[in-house]
C-alpha cells in the first residue's frame, strides 16, 4: 500500500503532550501513522506516495462517536419523551427492517458521520451483518452490537448477537468489530445481563448497553429489581473496562463509585438527553471520580443530527448553563472526549496522531467564515474554533486506515446520491409496514 504524505497543515496531534505543529506533516503508511511532526516531512518521498497539501487545514484524529445507532428515520415523535418515542416509532421501525433497508440506512448514517469527520462509530442496531456490509463498503470503522432484549419484546437475542459475531467480526480488514449489545434494563433481566457478560467473555469481545438514561428507567429498575440500574448491572457482572455504558444521566454517588470500581467506559450524549427531556448527566462528578468519558450523538431519531461538532459544543454549553460555571468543559478537554477518550473507551489504537497509531485522520478547512478571524499560530484559538465555532461542514477530508473516504467533501467509496435515494426508499418500506 502506498503512503499518504500530508504536508503544510496545522497538526493537532491530541497525543499525550497535546503537541500542535503549525506547518507540520503527518505520514500515513498503510493503515498506520509513520510520522507526525513540525515542518515539512524530511524523509524521502517515494514513488507512489500521494502528497496531500493541507495548507489552510487543521489535521487531527478522526472523531469517535461512542454511542450511535443506525437510523431508518428521523423527524418523528420529536415531542415525545424517551419511552413513548421508543414505543411509537423506534421499536416498530426496527422490527420492520429488511436486509436492504438496514444496509442503506446504515450507509446513509455512516455517510453523514464521514461528512462530519467521524471515523469510528459504536453502533447498536439490528441486522448487524447488513450493517457490517455497509460499513465495509463505505470504509468507516464500526463497532457493531445487536439490540438484545428479553424474548417477549421481539427484538434481538444473544444468539442473534453471537451469529452476527461469527458472520462479520473482523471483516473489512479488521475495521468491523462485533460486541454484545443490551437494549436497556426495562427490556432485560439480571439473568439476561449475566448471559450477555458470559457471551462477551466467551467471544473475547466487549459490551454496549444503555444504562440509567431516564428517571422512568430508574423507577422501573427499583420496582422490578429493588435496585438502581447500575447496581443491577454491577451485580450481574456486566460492567468492566470493556463495557461502554451510554447516557448514565441519573447516577447516584454509589453508581459513580461502581463505575469507577469496574473501570466502565461512559458515553455522554448531551443533545439526545436534552431533546428527550431526560436531564443532564453528572459528568463533572464522573470526571472528578476519574471515569473515562467519551461523546456520542445517540441516534438521528433523538438528536436529529450526527454532527459531532454540534455534540461537542452542546456538551460544553449545557454543563456551563446548568452549573452557572463558564470554566467547565473547556475546548481542549471537549476535543479530547471526542477523540482520545472515545478511542480509549473502545480499546482502539486511534484518537491521536502519533507514530504507530491507526491512520484515522481528518482535515478540517479553516478557509471559511466559521474559522474567521483566526490569528496565526494560536493553538488555543484553534481549539476554541473547532469546538465552539465550527460544524461538520468544515471537514474536507476523512481518512480511515490510511484510505481516503472523502476528499473535498466528495465521498469516494460509494455513490452518495444512490445512498440518499435508497435510504428514502427504505424509510417508505418501513413506514408502509408499520402502518404509519
Ligand atoms: Zn442510544
Please explain how this structure is put together:
- This protein has 14 helices and 18 strands.
- It has helices spanning 82-95, 99-115, 128-138, 158-168, 190-203, 215-225, 229-235, 253-262, 270-275, 283-288, 308-323, 331-346, 379-389, 416-434, and strands spanning 3-12, 20-29, 32-37, 50-53, 57-61, 63-69, 118-124, 141-145, 176-182, 207-211, 243-247, 265-268, 293-295, 298-299, 361-365, 395-400, 403-407, 410-411.
- It is globular.
- It is α/β, with parallel strands linked by helices.
- Strands 1, 2, 3, 4, 5, 15, 16, 17 and 18 form a 9-stranded mixed β-sheet that branches. A 9-stranded parallel β-sheet has the order 13-12-11-10-9-8-7-6-14.
- The longest helix has 19 residues, at 416-434.
- Zinc ion is lined by residues 67, 69, 210, 246, 298-299.
Class based on secondary structure composition and strand pairing: alpha/beta
Q: What oligomeric assembly is this protein in?
A: single chain
Average of the residue pLDDT scores: 97
Radius of gyration over alpha carbons?
A: 21 Å
- Helix count? 14
Bound small molecules, deduplicated = zinc ion
* Largest sheet features: 9 strands, mixed
Task: Please count the beta strands (DSSP E, at least 2 residues each).
Answer: 18
Low-confidence stretches: none
